Task: structure prediction
Amino acid sequence: MRLTASADPALWIPVTDSLGFRGRRHRKAAIRMLLRQANQALGRTERPGSKLGAWAMSQAAPLLMKRADGRVLVWTWKAEPELVVALASAQVLTPDVRIARASMPMDYDDTEAFQSRWLGKGEKLVAPALSGTPFTTYTWDTGTHLVTLTAVCGDRERFGTLGGALDDLARSIRIADDLTGGESPEVLRLPPA
Result:
């Protein structure tokens, strides 16, 4: 299953298709923020070679995502790439994935319904204080796949200010196979009954 989205280019920079120098600064800043969050979660301080590591990962990330062939889409906030990173993915719903979702801690039961024009009814979880890193997760169960958008924020105080932009990004995600040649993005195809 491949995903596509129509993220607002005034707000989001796509990391997925940014090969070479295009988007390099945003990729590197986003990866540096994610590494900083991981270090804080583990109780470590930033290491001297972490800037070089962030640069190396920023060079490899677009190639790895291209290899994922549309199963992973990533964006950073255009105005401030270290503020938020959003990652959309499609995962096959195996029995193990279903068990893992059912076994999540009670803290993650505080979801609210979230409607998407393309993916239907899903769930939204806003977690400002569940862990050291604030995040928002949107999930849709298509029956065969689990489509997820997870946005990680680098600044706890500004976490809630991006809710509307994240909702718009989540609503723009759709399955690439939903469209065939000649149809417009405004056409929604329903599966056969």
Q: What stands out?
A: Residues 4 and 176 are 5 Å apart (CA to CA). The mean pLDDT is 80.
